[in-house]
Specification:
The complex is a heterodimer of chains A (219) and B (611).
Chain A: E1 2-10, H1 19-32, E2 49-51, E3 59-70, H2 76-86, E4 91-97, E5 108-116, H3 122-130, E6 135-142, E7 145-152, E8 159-165, E9 168-176, H4 185-196, E10 204-211
Parallel strand pairs in A: 3-10
Antiparallel strand pairs in A: 1-3, 1-4, 2-3, 5-9, 5-10, 6-7, 8-9
Chain B: H1 3-8, E1 35-41, H2 45-48, H3 52-63, E2 67-73, H4 77-85, E3 104-108, H5 115-125, E4 140-144, E5 160-162, H6 166-183, H7 187-194, E6 200-201, E7 206-210, E8 216-221, E9 229-230, E10 258-261, E11 263-264, H8 274-278, E12 283-284, H9 287-301, E13 305-309, H10 319-330, E14 336-338, H11 349-356, E15 363-368, H12 372-377, H13 384-396, E16 401-408, H14 415-434, E17 445-452, H15 469-481, E18 488-492, H16 495-505, H17 511-520, H18 534-544, H19 548-552, E19 567-568, H20 573-584
Parallel strand pairs in B: 1-2, 1-3, 3-4, 4-5, 9-19, 10-13, 13-14, 15-16, 16-17, 17-18
Antiparallel strand pairs in B: 5-6, 7-8, 11-12
Helix pairs in contact in B: 3-6, 5-17, 6-7, 9-10, 13-14, 14-15, 17-18
Classes of the chains: A alpha+beta (219), B alpha/beta (611).
The structure holds iron/sulfur cluster.
The site of iron/sulfur cluster (SF4) has 12 residues of chain B, from loops.
């Protein structure tokens, strides 16, 4: 038995499949691929498949880390090939490697966001991102109860870069990701909308990389 | 993916309902097919994707190289709003192409309360809802499913109906369509020819006349259309096409598993049950074929549960053999087996042991009526002793929750029959406490679900008046007030919903106006409690000058012409009449395995029934 970390890209219409549904989907893909996975023990045993990080509905990814436990000695390459023959359209195992970092070490994510020039201009976006006063509402827990909290977004933008791409504006942005604190480009867009006083919904969002605290790659 | 669509999807609930791209969904080159077929299920994605018939016919149509069959479901209201606002016409999930330009649009009509969804889907597609307003050859709008045993209320919206089992006849319709498309025929030319295919009913070729009292006088076929249209059946279930894979939905749907039909038809002959009659004659599938097909399906879908379905699973003659075959491999592969529709009277100890080895959930029983007299009237041949005995088997095997299904408003029902429901449930509670092997440390939980009886075509009760909404309300009250134990909880069906179902079940063509009117007033998803707007329906009946009570609550005479008399579903009218008369004397009819009751359905299969 050994631990294996898959990096699965999620592109196209499958981005609308929720994080919760991804687990069931992977479980079935593994069954179809006849990969001998380790099952959890207990009343309702299920294969051990762990998505290290949630990905918001509508967000694509270049490679989401997923940990599994392989029984026996099927090689990582074999696991990857088998799975790729059984995945639905839009999902692809980019690599299958022995885990290096611990899942808790994920600290940042890089995203590529596209906005339509019909919705926002490059100047407006630049102004909003550098204003220092972006905030958004985020649900959190206080004393066990669900509450809405106002989050200072500006303070959490680690870095960003703007570009022009035909009818769209490209934004490459690094935001906190991980088990302790998370900010995604959808929330960032809400903050920008709030700042500019108009609805700005991204055309597309893709997570391109994950990093540890010191901004080295997460492996 | 369409950019407009991509931008609205983040704004709706469960966007994966609308994306397509699920595993095993069929993608073809649209330039290489002759027929684009939109298979529409007029309810939510979650309901439609749970439906076995759709899976079978979808795969069967896609077996044809000349046809691309795609799926379409009713968009939920939030999506409808976005689609209308952004001018996105109803599209098929596989290609994303608007279904307006398809050759055939096929709806499966599973229950009466989906009718407004049919209209809404046609409208969202950008098509006129009335068949007479759709002039060209394409798209042909066809309907199938159990409701087409009386399709008259929706006759104005459809070009043709396919009666009975669709595996073969759908293909014949497509062959004919293809020929006419090549020839450049008009819709009328195609339909006149289609009416000659056995099992095809073209409503526009039949004229209806009414008597002064509003009852039907006659339905007259024209242009060579047959006098009666007989439903189609598949003779040999072992040889008929069965899919080797199912589309596997991304989101959780109602039945998300491998489903396998083990036989068609029912031996029982319960007089209230339409399914028990319209799916006759009885035909079984052999255990080896089922077992192999289940294996393949599990392999191709990755599902870890198999559900064996039929109207009454334990009536399958080879159930134990089938379970043994399945249990041979499902254990190792960690696949569960579920067996719904178990009957009270022949639920054996061995069977329950085999199933408990796999999965344990609550048990459901359907005595349907509370007293023996009432059960004899409806020909539900189950006795109190049998129910208690079976409940005891279940309790001894670790079950502690039991759900009992009953109906209120059955023909000849008295207050005593209603009270009997509570008394019977109480006996189940008592049986639990008296059972020495009952599960330790748990109380018993007995639930009663009491629905309202709706008389349906092709049953011995097709002439009966449905209990009025007031009567049903009184019966519900009475049952609640006479419940003998606090361990029993009871739930009821919504009365107006059953009333409307009753109107449409036995309605005629004049109801098309009411359906269109209600749809225009915003009625959709009428089967969903929170979406059902009874006031709008009442307004619509008034606006159209139609009395719903005429259809629901009126007793029909045996010699009255019924709106479905020109359709033949196998079971003869003479048989139904005989059964109706027997019911008044609380006289039962033994099931088909004891003695053939002579219902005539076997004439559809060369005189044969698998009993
Ligand atoms: S023909 Fe006889 S055996 Fe067959 S379904 Fe009818 S009553 Fe039953």
């Amino acid at each position: 038995m050994y631990d294996l970390r898959l990096y699965i890209s999620k592109k196209g219409r499958i981005k609308f499949v929720s994080h919760l549904d991804m687990f069931r989907l992977m479980q079935r893909a593994v069954r179809r691929a006849e990969i001998p996975l380790w099952y959890t023990e207990g009343f309702n045993p299920h294969p051990y498949i762990s998505f290290l990080l949630a990905l918001s509905l509508g967000v694509e990814s270049e490679g989401e880390p997923v940990d599994i436990k392989i029984l026996g000695d099927m090689s990582p390459q074999e696991v990857k090939d088998r799975l790729n023959r059984c995945m639905p359209e839009g999902l692809y195992v980019e690599s299958a490697v022995k885990p290096f970092n611990k899942s808790a070490e994920i600290a940042y994510g890089t995203y590529k966001v596209l906005y339509s020039k019909e919705d926002i201009s490059e100047n407006e976006l630049f102004e909003a991102l550098t204003s220092g006063s972006l905030t958004c509402e985020k649900s959190g827990k206080s004393g066990g109860k669900k509450v809405m909290k106002t989050v200072d977004v500006s303070q959490h933008i680690k870095s960003f870069k703007l570009s022009s791409e035909n009818e769209d504006i490209g934004l490459e942005v690094v935001l906190p990701a991980g088990s302790t604190f998370n900010l995604n480009p959808i929330q960032l867009s809400q903050a920008v909308s709030g700042y500019l006083g108009k609805e700005v919904v991204p055309v597309s969002v893709i997570r391109t990389a994950l990093h540890t605290e010191d901004m080295t790659g997460f492996y | 993916m369409d950019r407009k669509l991509e931008r609205i999807l983040p704004l709706v609930q469960k966007p994966a309902r609308y994306t397509g791209g699920e595993l095993n969904s069929v993608i073809k080159d649209k330039n290489k097919v002759d027929i684009r077929f939109a298979f529409c299920f007029p309810d939510s994605y979650e309901i439609g994707m749970s439906h076995l018939g759709m899976k079978i016919l979808y795969s069967a149509a896609n077996e044809r190289d000349d046809t691309w069959c795609e799926r379409v479901f009713a968009p939920w209201d939030d999506m409808e709003e976005q689609m209308r606002r952004n001018n996105i016409p109803l599209y098929a999930l596989e290609s994303g192409d608007p279904i307006k330009d398809f050759d055939i649009i096929g709806f499966t009509l599973q229950y009466e309360l989906c009718y407004t969804n049919v209209l809404n889907m046609l409208d969202l597609a950008g098509l006129p809802v009335r068949a007479s307003d759709r002039k060209g050859l394409s798209p042909i709008v066809m309907g199938g499913g159990p409701c087409v045993c009386n399709p008259e209320p929706v006759a104005e919206f459809f070009d043709l109906f396919s009666l009975g089992e669709g595996e073969e006849v759908n293909s014949e319709i497509m062959d004919l369509y293809k020929e006419h498309k090549k020839r450049g025929s008009s819709k009328e030319e195609f339909l006149t020819d289609a009416a000659k295919i056995p099992g095809v009913y073209v409503p526009s070729l039949y004229k209806t006349e009414y008597n002064a009292d509003g009852t039907l006088k006659d339905i007259i076929p024209c242009e060579g259309a047959p006098e009666t249209v007989t439903k189609r059946i598949i003779s040999d279930l072992d040889k008929v096409f069965y899919p080797d894979n199912f589309v596997v939905p991304f989101i959780d749907v109602v039945h998300d598993r491998v489903t396998h039909e083990i036989f068609r038809g029912c031996i029982r002959g319960c007089r209230f049950c339409q399914a028990g009659f319209i799916y006759r004659p009885i035909r079984e599938k052999s255990p080896d074929v089922i077992n192999e097909q289940c294996k393949t399906l599990c392999k191709n879908t990755g599902y870890d549960e198999i559900s064996l379905c039929s109207l009454s699973s334990s009536d399958y003659t080879k159930i134990e053999e089938l379970l043994s075959k399945l249990l041979d491999w499902t254990g190792d592969e960690k696949v569960n087996i579920a067996l719904p529709s178990l009957r009270v009277d022949n639920f054996s100890e061995e069977l329950v042991k085999k199933l408990t080895g796999v999965r344990r959930s609550g048990l459901t029983f359907a005595p349907e009526a509370g007293t023996q007299r009432m059960r004899d009237v409806i020909n539900k041949n189950v006795t109190e002793e049998e129910l208690i005995e079976t409940a005891n088997i279940a309790f001894s095997n670790g079950y502690s929750a039991v759900k009992l299904y009953f109906m209120l408003g059955l023909p000849t029902e008295t207050d005593e029959d209603v009270e009997g429901i509570g008394l019977l449930a109480k006996k189940v509670v008592d049986a639990f406490y008296m059972n020495p092997d009952k599960p330790k440390g748990r109380g018993v939980n007995v639930g009663i679900s009491a629905s309202s009886f709706v008389p349906k075509p092709f049953t011995p009760f097709q002439w009966e008046p449905q209990a009025t909404p007031d009567e049903l309300a009184q019966k519900q009250e009475h049952l609640k007030n006479t419940l003998p134990s606090k361990k029993i909880n009871v739930s009821f069906h919504n009365i107006p919903t059953s009333f409307l179902e009753g109107v449409f079940a036995r309605g005629d063509r004049r109801l098309s106006d009411v359906i269109e009117c209600a749809w225009k007033k915003g009625c959709r998803f009428d089967g969903w409690g929170d979406k059902f707007m009874f006031d709008k329906w009442q307004e619509s009946f008034v606006d159209c000058g139609i009395s719903p009570e005429f259809y629901a609550n009126r007793r029909r005479e045996y010699d009255e012409k019924l709106p479905w008399d020109h359709l033949d579903f196998g079971v003869s009218k003479a048989f139904l009449m005989k059964e109706s008369k027997k019911s008044y004397n609380a006289e039962t009819t033994p099931h088909c395995r004891i003695k053939c009751a002579g219902c005539s359905a076997n004439k559809l299969n060369g005189g044969k029934c698998d009993v």
